[in-house]
Each structure stands twice: as structure tokens, then as C-alpha cells.
Write a structure and sequence with these properties.
GO terms for molecular function: transferase activity. This is Phosphotransferase. Keywords: Transferase. Pfam families: APH (PF01636). The protein is α+β, with helices and mostly antiparallel strands. It has two domains: 108 residues, Phosphorylase Kinase, domain 1; 172 residues, Aminoglycoside 3'-phosphotransferase, Chain: A, domain 2. 42% of the residues lie in helices and 14% in strands. It is built from nine helices and nine strands. The strands form three sheets. A five-stranded antiparallel sheet has the order 1-2-3-5-4. It has a two-stranded antiparallel sheet with strand order 6-9. A two-stranded antiparallel ribbon has the order 7-8. α3 packs antiparallel against α6 and α4 packs parallel to α8. The longest helix has 25 residues. The protein starts with 17 loop residues before the first helix and ends in an 11-residue tail after the last helix. The N terminus is likely disordered.
Length: 307
């Protein structure tokens, strides 16, 4: 649940063996290529092409065997520290890939912190239209349910506790009160049944496949059963939609004109998404906590902070 801009990773959140043994874990993952569920089967051992840029929490590598290209992701953070379920992610990815909205997963090894998926060439300079984004969200929310549950209140409590324990600057008291009020409002107004949610559907996690033209959702590590309104808010937040754009997204997603309560729910979850982005950064980048707070807290004076 990163909802992030570019920043460095907090070393305290990185697995103790990660930076030292990333190369070893990469070689161990490559060595198990015969266990990868590729279709067609790989013609031989894959070789490393190059690291992929852009990941904030994990390490990603592009590999190739014959004409087939795949992506290896290695954990860069402790999943438990972020409330992640790698098993839920693996199952959700299988369903999403079968529905044509995510890369197909080929291999999963939680002991190595490794995940292998198909690689898709991106159609560059493409941004999703409101209609394409809402269609992708509806397709995600129609996927089969999983056991892993995402509770925003628990996530906030976990992150804020880690900030406090680390001794870094945290949310001021007035913002803690506002956050608590937003969570209370969301519980009172949101009566939507839980669905499978992505929870990090930002531009960096959206890819328009050059071959098919379909929009794919990447990086499902924060997925779980939750409210579709948070997904809508994160997508709106990431795209920087104004009031008119948010109205259009709701209308396209709901397939009806949004009610005042719909708009209010999106406003509440938009503010929660912005707070989640902030506290995630406070945890993962404590050295920049003071400057982050100084830069981003004034943005909360508006209706929905800027991404």
C-alpha cells in the first residue's frame, strides 16, 4: 500500500539478508528454472538481461530463455512488516492473469522471497482513459475472493507504531485526530461488501500491453479483501484527477450517475489514500521524515492532497 513518489528505502525495513544476498537469491531462483510453470516450457536455463528500474520496495530483474522474457522480483522488505501475504498475492495474480488483467505468475518461492512473472512490453506514452481505468477496476473487483483481509485502520496503526518505535517524526496531533475521524466516517458510510482489491493502482503499476493493447495491473503485493472505494481513491489520487475527473471515474465505474454519498466516500478515501502515502514514506524513509512532513502536510488543507 505504497501510494508513493520516488524515495529511498528504509534500511530498517529491509530484510537482513536482502542487500547482502540479493545476488545469491537471484542465482538460486534462476537455478530452479525447471520448476517455473512456463507455457511453453523454457528451452533452457534463463540468463539475466538487466535489472529493472522503478521498484521502491523490491528488486526486479529481466531474464530471458530463448524468445521468452520474464521478470524476477526479489523481496526488498519484510512482507510481515507491511501486513502482506505473498500467498494471497500469488493466488490473486493467477486469477488476474487468467482474466487478462495481470502478467501470468510462473514461479513463487517465499523462502527466497522470489516471484517470477511473464514480461510484457509496454505501450509507451499511453495513459489510461477514465473508461479504461474504471473497466480495469471493475475487472479486479470481480475476481474470486481470497482469505487475506486488508483493514485500513490496522495498516495505519501498524505504520504509525513503527514510526513511533523508530523515534522519527510522526503525524502531528491534529492530523492524527483528522485521520481517526476519516476512518470513523469511512466505517459509518461505507456499507459496501468486501471485494478483492489491488490497493496500489498507481501509474507505476499500470501497463498498457503493446501486443494486446490491454491495460494490466502490476505489483499485487498489497492486494486483499477490502473496500473498492479505496482502490477508486488510489487510482484517482495517482492520476491526479480533479473534481470533474473524479466524477467521471465514479460514473464510469458505477455505470450510473454518482450520488452525493458516492462522492463523499471518494473524498474520504482520497484523504485516507493521501495519509497512507505519507505514513508509508515515514516508515520507509525516516531520514527524510521531517522534510516530508513539512512538504506534504500543507497539502491536506485542500479537499484531496496532490499525489
Amino acid at each position: 500500500m505504497q501510494i508513493h513518489s520516488r524515495c529511498t528505502r528504509h534500511r530498517g525495513m529491509i530484510l537482513s539478508h536482502t542487500e547482502q544476498n540479493t545476488g545469491l537469491r537471484l542465482q538460486q531462483t534462476l537455478a530452479q528454472w525447471r520448476q517455473w510453470r512456463c507455457d511453453p516450457p523454457l528451452p533452457g536455463a534463463p540468463h539475466l538481461l538487466h535489472p529493472l528500474q522503478g521498484g521502491l520496495s523490491n528488486y526486479n530483474y529481466l531474464v530471458q530463455a530463448g524468445a521468452q522474457k520474464l521478470v524476477i522480483r526479489l523481496d526488498g522488505v519484510n512482507p510481515a512488516s507491511h501486513g502482506l501475504s505473498r500467498q494471497a498475492e500469488w493466488l490473486a495474480l493467477q486469477s488476474a492473469a487468467s482474466a487478462g488483467i495481470a502478467p501470468m505468475p510462473r514461479y513463487f518461492n517465499p523462502e527466497l522471497g522470489a516471484l517470477v512473472t511473464d514480461f510484457h512490453e509496454a505501450e509507451l506514452a499511453r495513459e489510461p482513459s477514465v473508461q479504461e481505468l474504471s473497466r480495469l477496476l471493475r475487472n479486479i473487483h470481480a475476481l474470486p475472493p481470497r482469505r487475506h483481509r486488508v483493514d485500513l485502520g490496522d495498516r495505519f496503526q501498524n505504520y504509525l507504531h513503527q514510526v513511533q518505535r523508530g523515534g522519527t517524526p510522526g503525524l502531528p496531533a491534529d492530523h492524527r485526530k483528522r485521520l481517526d475521524a476519516l476512518l470513523t466516517q469511512s466505517r459509518e458510510l461505507d456499507q459496501t461488501a468486501p471485494v478483492l482489491t489491488h490497493n496500489d493502482l498507481l501509474p507505476a503499476n499500470l501497463l498498457c500491453c503493446r501486443q494486446s493493447g490491454n491495460w494490466l495491473a502490476l505489483d499485487w503485493e498489497y492486494c486483499g479483501m477490502g473496500t473498492p472505494w479505496f482502490d477508486l481513491a488510489v487510482a484517482s489520487f495517482g492520476q491526479g484527477l480533479d473534481e470533474q475527473g473524479r466524477h467521471q471515474l465514479l460514473e464510469s465505474y458505477l455505470r450510473r450517475p454518482p450520488t452525493p454519498q458516492d462522492s463523499e466516500l471518494l473524498r474520504i478515501y482520497g484523504a485516507l489514500a493521501a495519509y497512507m502515502s505519507l505514513v508509508w514514506h515515514l516508515v520507509t524513509d525516516p531520514e527524510e521524515a521531517a522534510s516530508l512532513l513539512e512538504q506534504r502536510l500543507p497539502q491536506f488543507e485542500g479537499e484531496v492532497p496532490s499525489p
